[in-house]
Amino acid sequence: MIKSKFFRAGVCSIAMALALVGCASEPTSNGETTDETGQGAEAEGGGDLVVAVLSDATSLDPHTSSDVPSGNVQSNIYQTLVKYNTDMELEPLLAEEWTPVEEDVWEFKLREGVYFHDGSEFNAEVVKANVERILDETTASPRAILFEIVEEINVVDDHTIQFKTEQPFAPLPAHMAHYASSMISKEVIDGDNEAVENGEQPGTYVNENPIGTGFFKFDNWQPGDHLVLDNFEDYWGENAKVDTVTFRVVPEDLTRIAELETGSAHIIDPVQPSDLSRVENMAGTEAYVRNAASITYLGFNMEKEPFDNKLVRQAIAMTLDKEAMLNGILDGTGEAAIGPINDTNFGFSEEVDAIERDVEGAKELLAEAGYENGFNTTIWTNDNRERIDIAELTQASLAEIGINVDIQVVEWGAYLDATTAGEHDMFILGLSLGTGDADYPMHMLFHSDSVGSGNRVFMQDEAFDQMLYEARIEQDEDTRLQMYVEATNYLNEESPMAFLYHPSHIMGVGEGVEGFWSDASGVYQLQDVTIQ
What we know:
The model is unreliable at 3-43 (pLDDT under 50). The chain contains 15 helices and 22 strands. 28% of the residues lie in helices and 22% in strands. Strand 7 (150-157) and strand 8 (160-165) form a beta hairpin. The protein has 3 domains: 26-57 and 214-291 and 506-532, Periplasmic binding protein-like II (D-Maltodextrin-Binding Protein, domain 2); 79-210, Dipeptide-binding Protein, domain 1 (Alpha-Beta Complex), CATH 3.90.76; 294-502, Dipeptide-binding Protein, Domain 3 (Dipeptide-binding Protein, domain 3), CATH 3.10.105. Residues 89-450 form the Solute-binding protein family domain.
């Protein structure tokens, strides 16, 4: 079994930012498989790398999407200003260096001689256009919170750009490593703006013209079936080793494993925890396992009765058996959650007022809330075996306090749309803890500005919004840590969601595959992969 080390990050000063590249939730999709394999490729390069995935991408626009399958494709087409290496150390990518030239100004020196797949040049004006697009209310980017503290963007020269922030903000370089800040060709941005003026939705033109600076370029996409990227031969840096990458949608867990075993797929994602030993014991295959900067949660729609009652939410959170989830469903992988983040993120502390399982106490809370005899409700989940199992275990637990739950399994795209629109009662979802800092996930999941994107619990709490703002701009590390402890305690008291567990990323790697790794958010790193 391949095990990846996981490194803890922390903010130390204004000159040091932290991050783990990341994104959003785990989805699913439907589709049939094909039989392209790439077998026979030379060991040192070439061939078609086949990645069998549970879920299709939903969009090729990094600024308007927020799911991991889309990010896995996008991060191979587009690039960010900075990135993290295997040790989760921040290093140059499209920017060669970055400096806090003033307390509230970050300056980035950009790499010269970089061109997009359409031949246009990468420069400071392009960076400005990209960040402005993310911040533009018309774009309605779910990732605008990454840069909302940016007050001004100033182009110093062709390859120097400065970002002035409302307050000193040490994590800005880390936010620039998030693939939501990927650089799109300015010609494509202009085309998308024109399309929006003509009545199209933001991102429609980008989705049809995904032009980045990455080592792979877009070839074709058959939604629900497969998506193909080609090696970009004019890439500014070291070229990718394979000729093409095919992301093939294989929704059935056992079918993905069979494809790994036969060599029809070189990498599969995910491997369910219950299937881990099978992959480990197959001849020539290995399991790639790493701790995840991710949270899986049971969310409540706080705008619907009875979930508008804090006591009801607390009662449900107190009833759930997280140990049964970890041992019975995750086969001992992952770790129980005591809040929205784990120790991969700055802001985590074990010194929080965690919610302990107490069925009798939960019954008392329900009675106090006026639901002594319980009530009927629904849990939504997407078509993911692990999440369906979690929903069934939750259903059984809540029956102990008189809550009768109907489980509804919804197709991934419809699931995202419906939960964004607030059509659900309860739902199971996850979030990648994108930047290694509590600022991002707490804003994404709970801030009022994120309602309708990451905030699917519809929490709108001015006091909590202010807590996040004050923690965001605090420069003393110890003080800031304590502020996130208080924020976590506030969340456990309000219980907008039940924090279930932090999963492990488990993937399968076939015989003859070298150079593959994944970051803490589960995003594939494919530039150096070779296949035999």
